Amino acid sequence: MPTSTWKGNISFGLVSVPIRLFSAARYSHVAFHEIHETCGTRVHQQLYCPHDERVVTRDEIALGYEVEKDKYILVEPEELKRLQPASSSSMEIVQFVKLDEVDPIYFETSYFAVPDEAGKKAYALLFNTMKKLQYAAIAQVTMHQRERTVIIRPYEGGLTLHTIYYPNEIHEVKEYGKDLPQNMKSQEIDLASQFAKALIKPFRPEQFHDEYQTRVQQLVDSKEKGEAPPKQEKTKRLAPVVDLMAALKKSIADAAPSNKKLRKSA
């Protein structure tokens, strides 16, 4: 069993549910190291001071907050440590919300909450209540020496926990969602809807794969075996759409054969 990242209790009124948290997902990719091409040795990163023109060691490094260009306020690690919240083993539910009111943009890291033996009945009570009402719980907890707000929700027979971003951590892009054309033709909307409906299928995540990472791994495997690298697939280059109506009609026509194949295979 993987190592738990947090151990404590979910506090639900006067009910306490002992749980452990396990990472629910992790980004996976083919990793490369930087190698000295001449001798094949992995190189090491060094810390270089351009003012003194020399490499510095870790014990010479301080933490600095930039208050203006090239001007820093130095802060000691011990000063930061004194500001950190005390280690917490309690996760208190402060409110419940309707799950569909929570925008996914706030979700950060996901964890599986696994109950200890003594807490299984209380865990099941909380899970079934939230599942029946389609509620999510908002709780506060200290994780990794940082106060976090989390969302707990029922997922496939258990409770899943998501740390969430605070509103000030959500970036603003002033151009986003602005100056969109408002004079869309009803025929264009109807054709776009027709195309979307032609591609509607149940969400099955096991059907999706990182094809690029697969090709990278194949390349590495072929080079290790001294074989020719796999053939590179040609990438389609799409030209900017000039006539929306014509493009939508062609898209619907192109989608029809693939949908017939899907219906036959189903």
Give structural notes.
With 266 residues, this protein is of the alpha+beta class. Among the domains are: 6-26 and 84-169, Ku70, Chain: A, Domain 2, CATH 2.40.290.10; 184-196 and 242-266, no CATH class. Helices cover 27% and strands 30% of the residues. The chain has five helices and 13 strands. The strands form four sheets. It has a seven-stranded mixed beta barrel with strand order 1-2-10-13-12-11-9. A two-stranded antiparallel ribbon has the order 3-4. Strands 5-6 form a two-stranded antiparallel ribbon. A hairpin with a 4-residue loop joins strand 5 and strand 6. Helix 3 runs parallel beside helix 5. The longest helix has 22 residues, at 244-265. The protein is extended and about 65 Å long. The mean pLDDT is 85.
Keywords:
about 25% helix, extended, seven-stranded mixed beta barrel, Ku70, Chain: A, Domain 2, alpha+beta, 5 helices, single chain, two-stranded antiparallel ribbon, about 270 residues
Which helices and strands appear, and what pairs or packs with what?
Blueprint: E1 6-12, E2 15-23, E3 35-36, E4 41-42, E5 47-49, E6 54-56, E7 63-68, E8 71-75, H1 77-83, E9 90-98, E10 107-115, H2 120-133, E11 135-143, E12 146-155, E13 158-164, H3 186-198, H4 211-225, H5 244-265
Parallel strand pairs: 1-9
Antiparallel strand pairs: 1-2, 2-10, 3-4, 5-6, 7-8, 9-11, 10-13, 11-12, 12-13
Helix pairs in contact: 3-5
